[in-house]
Amino acid sequence: MNQAFLSLGTNIEPRLDYLDEAIELLEDHRDITVNRKSSIYETVPVGYANQADFLNMVVGIETSLQPFALLDYCQQIENRLGRKRNIRFGPRTIDLDILTYNLENSTVEKLLIPHPRMNERAFVLIPLHEIAPDFKIPLWNKRARELLQLLQESDIKGVRKWTQNG
Ligand SMILES: Nc1ncnc2c1ncn2[C@@H]1O[C@H](COP(=O)(O)OP(=O)(O)OP(=O)(O)O)[C@@H](O)[C@H]1O
Ligand SMILES: Nc1nc2c(c(=O)[nH]1)N=C(CO)CN2
């Protein structure tokens, strides 16, 4: 069985429902088992600042799907949840990125694994550290915590645990 980590992000309300529905749709697939879920984090937008705060989380899955089939299913979920692709890095109902797939590296533009920007994203590294503290991310061959240490304090401050009651 293959082990992958996926990043989920949303900044259009109802944000919590989009996360819940995306996870349900992952669990509905007979070839995917979601075996780890991080907490939900509220995060300041990175890249394109003029947009609402995100909810982000990371899940660990086991799957018999090959990487492109997994990407295809992630994109089906994005489409079902009404994802529009207009502004790069802009607002979205749900974004599902494949962070890692086993210890594989893929350099095909349509599917870059590990995700090439994950090392600079505290909104990915903090939840990944929570569920897989010892996992060494291929390409950098470093744990999430070690990559976090290379980021600015301000990037890390933009990520805080989210609870429904604020
Ligand atoms: N690891 C990956 N996970 C998901 N999509 C990927 C990955 N590597 C490459 N892609 C490609 O990136 C394309 C654009 O993806 P998307 O619209 O989700 O980007 P984005 O969320 O705006 O930016 P980012 O990838 O920085 O999070 C997808 O169509 C997909 O083919
Ligand atoms: N905080 C945060 N910022 C982002 C996010 C995201 O999920 N969270 N996704 C982006 C495009 O992939 C761009 N910027």
UniProtKB/TrEMBL annotation:
EC number: 2.7.6.3
Keyword ATP-binding (UniProt): yes
Gene Ontology MF terms in the entry: 2-amino-4-hydroxy-6-hydroxymethyldihydropteridine diphosphokinase activity; ATP binding; kinase activity
Keywords: ATP-binding, Folate biosynthesis, Kinase, Nucleotide-binding, Transferase
PROSITE patterns attached to this UniProt entry: HPPK (PS00794)
NCBIfam families in UniProt: folK (TIGR01498)
The protein's name: 2-amino-4-hydroxy-6-hydroxymethyldihydropteridine diphosphokinase
Organism: Oceanobacillus halophilus
